[in-house]
């Protein structure tokens, strides 16, 4: 009315946007929470580090993560059949090399883990090394998948200014198994009357 123009900042809705990151990650957590709560299978928290052979350069290490994870997934499926997962890459300030944090759901793995935990951990260490990951990798059952999921989404929220991030352009920090999210919900359309 008085001729002044009010500008509001452009909102991208992206997790790496300094304005939108909180809302984007809250939305991501809510979207992931529904299928996590619906999963009847026991959940395992997995950490996969890279061995010395994978440490040619940080960008090479990031590019090799997908192939290493695919090899490990094939070996896992061969032993235990289909499984669901949520995966994120994490990099600490003290090292330019990433490691993967995963939540894995598999009922057949849970049965075997209950019956013979040491054999499963030995088997896991073997397939991890065969897939190109390092010695400091582990798998443990978790009773709090939502807490671990919140941690993984928090890692996804960190922008390059908050953490050292040597990943190549376009690297997806958070990955899920196919069909994990379910259908995407559309925002309601606001109509002016």
Describe it for me?
The protein is of the alpha+beta class and 193 residues long. The protein has 5 helices and 5 strands. It has helices at 21-38, 58-80, 107-115, 117-130, 145-157; strands spanning 43-48, 84-90, 99-105, 138-142, 174-176. Strands 4-1-3-2-5 form a 5-stranded antiparallel sheet, with helices on both faces. Helix 1 (21-38) packs antiparallel against helix 5 (145-157). The protein is globular and about 75 Å long. The two termini are 21 Å apart. The relative contact order is 0.21.
Question: What portion of the residues fall into strands of 2 or more residues?
Answer: 5-15%
Helix content: 25-40%
Low-confidence stretches: none
Mean pLDDT: 81
SSE order: HEHEEHHEHE
Largest pleated sheet: 5 strands, antiparallel
Distance between the termini: 21 Å
Total number of strands: 5
Radius of gyration: 20 Å
Question: Which outline best applies?
Answer: globular
Number of helices: 5
Physical arrangement of strands within the biggest beta sheet: 4-1-3-2-5
